[in-house]
Amino acid sequence: MNSSISINSGRNSGHLQKFLRNAESLIESGYYLKETAPDSLVLNHKGNKSRSFVSAIKEKRFILISELKQSSPSHSKKYFPDNMIIDRSTTLVKYSDAISILTEPNFFSGELNRLSKFQNSSKPVLMKDFIISKEQILAGISADAFLLIKRILSPDSLLELVNFINKLDKECIIEVDSESDFVNLLNLKFNGVLAINNRNLATLKIDQNLASRIFKEYEPKRPVLSFSGVSDPTDVENIVGSGLSGVLIGTALSKSRNPGKLLERFNTIIKSSLTKNQEKSSLTIKERGAIN
Q1: pTM for the predicted model, two decimal places
Q2: CA distance 157 to 173
Q3: Domain limits of the chain?
């Protein structure tokens, strides 16, 4: 199933190269086969129209995506113990518009079976991994959307995985970490959302305003999300103000001893910022009318 998928090896250095070697090793070891669903179960898990990132954005205008991330390469220990995962998951569902689940086990302490534990939630769920194989997608079939990283896939392989996901009536979230990759995707037709990662995946360095700058430069018609670099409510306020359609909160939540309280603060800022944006838009329309 993986023979036709090719990795864009020329652009994958540093940390990203380690992540990809690890992904290949996990596939070869059968890690994803343990959770791969039979064909009958795949049919039962065809896209849930009520759990959709695209629909959530249309309804909310801006969505808060909370990530269940227990570890990261930049942190030597787990952010929180295993016995806190259930409570944290409940909190994320309560205060978020969508959920991101890390399924990579070696760098992020992720587990595939965490995806199925959100099946009864009304919130859309993203499988976040270094996906280079259809096998990985089938292993995460209970997710509503799958992360595809433009930088690691050849153009043909990206398109093949996009089509495979969309045929399952699932959504793609295609992530870029550069302006050139973003521009290359502007005319791609697919069921899903674009995301700009403020973190360079090779160096892990963060350019906090990358997503906002790129979005303002091109003002695409489709929704665009901002990933990485959010540490406090001011960051979220700037993202909402830029016109982006959502933000993913990961490390800040993982580090927080009270993620529910932090998410409440983020939600308050989002609501306030959306109101300000609407007032500015109304004022602009009135000013144009007065000029005409």
Answers
A1: 0.90
A2: 15
A3: 9-291
